[in-house]
Amino acid sequence: MSVALMWEARAAGGRGEELLAWVREQDLPARPLRREVLRAPGDRVLVITWWDAAYDAELPELPEPDAGLVARAVHRWRFEVVE
Questions:
Q1: Of the N and C termini of the chain, which has fewer Cβ atoms inside 10 Å?
Q2: How many CB atoms lie under 10 A from the CB of residue 56?
Q3: What DSSP string runs through the chain?
Q4: Distance CA 51, CA 48 (A)
Q5: For residues 49 and 35, is the Cβ–Cβ distance under 8 A?
Q6: Would the pTM count as exceeding 0.90?
Q7: How many CB atoms lie within 10 A of CB 3?
Q8: 81, pLDDT greater than 90
């Protein structure tokens, strides 16, 4: 089974490039099958990691950035691949 973990944050005013750089520097203790980093207007950054694991498996996730770097708490979602 494949599981996708999604991590999304909105940078504090004008700090989108800094948040993007911070995300790119983050290493996970295990290597996912795939890792995608995306950005959107409003200084939002999205990271999707793909894992060969059960839906409820304990998997490493990106940490919370320093409070001054983000405008709100990080949003996290977990999905299982169906096709």
A1: C
A2: 9
A3: -EEEEEEEEEBSTT-HHHHHHHHHHPPPSS--SEEEEEEETTTEEEEEEEEES-TT-------PPPGGGBSSPPEEEEEE---
A4: 10
A5: yes
A6: yes
A7: 20
A8: no
Tens of pLDDT along 56-68?
A: 999 999 999 998 9
Closest CA to 12 of 76, 74, 56: 74
Percent of the chain beyond pLDDT 70?
A: 100
- The contacts of residue 32 (CB under 8 Å, 6+ apart) are 49, 50, 51
Q: Please, what are the domains in the chain?
A: 2-80 (3.30.70)
Residue whose entry in the numeric block shows the structure tokens 């059960």: 54
